[in-house]
Fold:
Amino acid sequence: MMMPWGWGMGGGWGFGVFGMVFMLVFWVLIIAGIVLVVKWLVDQGKPGTASGSGAESAVDILKKRYARGEIGKEEFEAKKRDLL
Structure:
């Protein structure tokens, strides 16, 4: 006796429900991976992030504050000692 056209060992739908769930999980993981890669690439260009090339160190910020006159020499030296 011949099987109807398109029916197989999985009950007629290939791998059945397991195959559908597996395919759904597969595509969700692929899309999530793409989103994470794009987010990581966008974050690379932002200044001020730890991994960005435009990040200022605490000592650089302290030097700018001293140069603008926001803090005095004593405070600058004390904070610099704390940071280094």
In short: The two ends are 85 Å apart (CA to CA). Helices lie at 16-44, 58-68, 73-83. DSSP finds three helices and no strands in the chain.
